[in-house]
Amino acid sequence: MPSTDQNASDDSAWMAKAIELAVEAKGTNPADTPIAALVVMDGKLVASGVNRTAECCDATAHAEIVALRAAGQAAGEMRVEGATLYSTLQPCGMCTMASIWAGVSRVVYGAGRDDVHEMYFEDRHLSTLDFIADAYKDDLTLTGGVRADECAPLYFHPWDDVPEDLQGND
Ligand SMILES: [Zn+2]
């Protein structure tokens, strides 16, 4: 789906809601992983989620997965065909693939991998975006950088010296 002005203003408004949810649920300390995701279909909020990995002792409880699970429950089926997934942080490979399995057609994110510390991404050279562009281009559109300047401060900066025990990917 080509990006349009309407898309851009909707994206900005939904991202503002996602940021609000992240901060409301988890505050603004990067150590508390204030990441939030929304599933939106036909202009309506279907489900939302925040990162619950620490609370649930569940490595798969990323905000996007939590939101997609809730969306499936709300829809009464596993697929939310044509939905848009909003995330305050660029989704990892797991969440991007989950979006494909769930039938999401757009992923819109705030802060990108260059805006934050490398601990947030499991891959070194191949970005999930490249992978998707190569393998699934027709099925999933990715739009990044929406309110990135508001999302990025919720996470560790690229130059931060993040304590080992706070790093998820080592
Ligand atoms: Zn993820």
Automatic annotation (TrEMBL):
What Pfam family does this protein match (any one)?
dCMP_cyt_deam_1
- What is the recorded name of this protein? CMP/dCMP-type deaminase domain-containing protein
Q: Mind telling me which PANTHER family this protein's record contains? A: CYTOSINE DEAMINASE FAMILY MEMBER (PTHR11079), RIBOFLAVIN BIOSYNTHESIS PROTEIN PYRD, CHLOROPLASTIC (PTHR11079:SF162)
Q: Which GO terms describe its molecular function?
A: catalytic activity
UniProt cross-references to CDD domains, sorted A to Z: nucleoside_deaminase
Q: Which organism is it from?
A: Croceicoccus pelagius
Segments forming domain CMP/dCMP-type deaminase: 9-134
